[in-house]
Structure formats: structure tokens, C-alpha cells
Amino acid sequence: MSKFLEIIQQDKPVLVDFFAEWCGPCKMMSPILKEVKDVLGDKVSIIKIDVDKNQPLAAKYQVRGVPTLILYKSGKQVWKQSGVVQKKDLVSIINSFS
């Protein structure tokens, strides 16, 4: 938990992907997140949190479905959405907080 809090305190946007191994749409998000990272590079940190292994964290951030993406900037949640989000949408959302 403290490591997570440390990560989301960064000045640059931090995109957190709450996922589960058994979740089909979560598997679809993986290559999309890789493409987003390829486009944005060091402008964003992307971390993945397995909700089955990190239930207290998922509960704290009110993750009720997977995948849930939450964007943080300087420790504050600035955007949250459940479900698959397309690359161009994610890139423009992250850029708006860069």
C-alpha cells in the first residue's frame, strides 16, 4: 500500500490498471496500454494491480469491476473509468493532465 501511494505521488500522470487474470476485457487492455506507453514514453507511468492479489487496495479505491483504469496526478485521482478504453482516448486523456 505505501509503495502504491509513493508511485501515485509523482508529478507526471500515473495510470493504474486494476485487472484480474481471469478477465477477458483485461487481456484486451494489455496491448492497448503498451501502445499508450510507446506513444507517451516518459510522460506517463503505467502500473498494473491484480485485484485478486490486492483486494484491500481495490476496495480502498472502490474498484468494483475490472478492468478499471484510474489516472493520478501528484497523488490526486483525476480520472477513472471501468471497461476497455481505446488507445487514442487514453492518450488524449493522459495528455490533458500532462
TrEMBL record:
Presence of the UniProt keyword Lipid biosynthesis in the record: no
Disulfide cysteine pairs (residue numbers): C23-C26
Recorded superkingdom: Bacteria
Swiss-Prot/TrEMBL site (Deprotonates C-terminal active site Cys) positions: D17
UniProt keyword Cytoplasm present: no
Pfam families named in the record: Thioredoxin
Matches recorded under Gene3D superfamilies: Glutaredoxin
Annotated active site: C23, C26
Gene Ontology cellular-component terms listed: cytosol
Domain (Thioredoxin): residue spans on this chain: 1-98
NCBIfam families: thioredoxin (TIGR01068)
PANTHER family: GEO12009P1
Annotated protein name in UniProt: Thioredoxin
